[in-house]
Amino acid sequence: MDRPEEKCGNNLGPMGGEAMLASLGGCFMSNLRAAIAAREDAAVDEIELKITATLAEHPQRFSAIHMRITADADATKLQKLVTIAERSCIAANTLRGAVELSVSVGRSG
């Protein structure tokens, strides 16, 4: 972990907030992939996660985090899988009470 040079770092790695968002994404996607693998009728070849966050000041923190999942899957099935992943994701469950956390799904392509 590091900071950009303009913030007195060496720019050798992500800042703490970036690492936290990456951890959230990794935790969520591992749970989503496990939910997909556990269901024979959940054929998903392409899946993408994009995380956006709103930064607040005083104290500096994330006030909102949104995860957008797109996949080449039926929207209804994908939403069910995402719900399973949300319930299973330790990182999301930890953050949910402290920050506005939302998830949406869409079809890729």
From TrEMBL:
Cross-referenced Pfam families: OsmC (PF02566)
Protein name: OsmC family protein
Organism for this UniProt entry: marine metagenome
